[in-house]
Amino acid sequence: MIFFGFFFECIFLIFCTILFILTFNSSKRKDLFKILGFGLFYKLLFFFFINTYVSTYSDGFAFQDDYDYHHVSKEMSENWVQGQFYSPKEIKYQAEKNPGYYYLNALVYSVFGANEINARLVNLFLSIFISFYIFILGNTIFSRNVGIFSAFTFLLLPDINFWSSLQFKDITVSFLTITIFY
Question: b/e for 140-167, b at 16 or more Cβ within 10 A?
Fold first, then answer.
């Protein structure tokens, strides 16, 4: 069941990404597909490495926040399936600090299954979308070469790859911030 949810989520996210790319003209579209291809290959490789390492040498969570995001969102998702809706403030993990990320993860868990890999995969695709926006902004402000260089440099940053492979709100906040600038 976990593999099916993961596979279905990958297909869904790739489909949404391709639909996003198709909204651009043909010259940008070709560059965005290159970024998508490289980003998927490199980030999925890094994703599986990080998640294998975390699963092998710990309880499956790199930090306490990773653990909290998963368990609070899982509990919210389970209650939504039962028809009970409540805010994360009623949960003991101090969710009132940033409830939006709990709601996003609970939605992902409700649709694709309550596995931390599913929420981490959303972060991975959001980081690829960030590279799209970086390319578009670099291309618009400077030139095509600057946009491509900036996007590929972003995709290769180790910290970004690490945080996008785990369940943290930093990538989501970065995505929303760059979306505002776009």
Answer: eeeeeeebbebbbebbeeeebbebbbbb
d(CA 135, CA 143): 10
pLDDT digits (tens, 9 = 90+) for 122-162: 999 999 999 999 999 999 999 999 999 999 999 999 999 99
**DSSP alpha helix (H) spans, the chain:** 2-21, 26-57, 64-81, 99-112, 116-141, 144-156, 158-164, 170-181
- The reported pTM is 0.87
Other C-beta atoms closer than 10 Å to the C-beta of 25 total 7
Q: What are phi and psi of 25, to 5 degrees?
A: -70, 170
- The answer to whether 139 touches 103, Cβ cutoff 8 Å, is no
Q: Which long-range contacts (CB under 8 A, 24 or more apart) does 11-16 make?
A: 13/121, 13/122, 13/125, 14/40, 16/125
